[in-house]
Specification:
Radius of gyration: 21 Å
Distance between the termini: 47 Å
Order of helices and strands: EEEEEHHEEEEHHHHH
Strand content: 15-25%
Bound molecules: zinc ion
């Protein structure tokens, strides 16, 4: 009979400081012996840590969540209100645009919270024309986009994927940054719609002639892979383990 025992590093865990861009990561390692299997919680450096540098760990299991949802969890669940990492203070500085809107005034700039950590009380402004927007306006745009996205029937295969891609193109011109979390959500739905259709040709063979529809499916899945890869690269730039499967997907789709 295999028995499991769990050992957690309660003694050393509190010695780490929290950061949303940590320099260590944790994983569970299995140790198999003849009659038992043990799990060990292992902390590894995921980038070079210099002497006297603070060793940090991401206390929240929400690394890939969009900015605002993550902030809510940090604040209300984990009681972390004063994280000063670049991702919290200025998400755009690390390329996190998961809550940036397109400016409805100049149609060119990006709108984001001037004080991201208190987003709902903050003024939101455009980085190009400097126009200011109250959070109530931002909320209205988000509700409108979300309602439209949720109203799309995802049970019609390619027809649903067409509608979702139309949503992505249209909203990326007028309302949402391409890296916005509603865009990621839309691409995720595209993948769901195409999953069963493209299952037979998931591993492309250069010797096979594919239909135009198949090639379009690959291109759309490739776009999805790029969007996800960009987001993962942003929030965990030095940890390739998370990127592995997305890179593999992109490689397969690049035929
Ligand atoms: Zn942070
Ligand atoms: Zn503007």
């Amino acid at each position: 009979m295999i028995c499991f025992s769990y050992k957690l590093l309660f003694g050393t865990q509190p010695r780490f400081a929290h950061s949303c861009l940590p320099n260590t990561m944790q994983s569970l390692d299995y140790e198999l012996t003849q009659d038992s299997s043990q799990l060990r919680l292992v902390t590894r450096a995921c980038t070079t840590i210099l002497k006297k540098e603070v060793i940090t760990l991401d206390f929240s299991p929400t690394a890939f969540y969009p900015y605002l949802i993550r902030q809510r969890i940090l604040r209300h669940v984990l009681c972390i209100e004063n994280c000063v990492c670049a991702r919290c203070v200025n998400p755009a500085s690390i390329g996190d645009f998961s809550d940036h809107l397109k400016c409805s005034q100049c149609k060119d700039g990006l709108v984001s919270a001037e004080e991201p950590t208190i987003w709902s009380e903050s003024v939101w402004s455009c980085n190009s024309c400097q126009e200011e927007f109250p959070y109530s306006f931002i909320k209205k745009v988000l509700i409108d986009c979300r309602r439209e996205l949720e109203s799309i029937d995802t049970s019609r295969g390619r027809a649903s994927a067409d509608e979702l891609m139309n949503f992505i193109r249209r909203r990326s011109l007028t309302d949402l940054h391409r890296g916005h979390f509603l865009m990621l959500s839309a691409y995720n739905k595209v993948e769901t719609c195409l999953r069963s259709i493209s299952a037979g040709v998931r591993q492309p063979d250069p010797a096979t002639v594919y239909s135009r529809d198949n090639i379009q499916d690959f291109q759309r899945l490739g776009e999805y892979g790029d969007v996800v890869d960009r987001h993962v690269r942003t929030v965990r730039s030095h940890v390739d383990i998370f990127r592995g499967k997305f890179c593999l997907l992109r490689l397969l789709l690049s035929y």
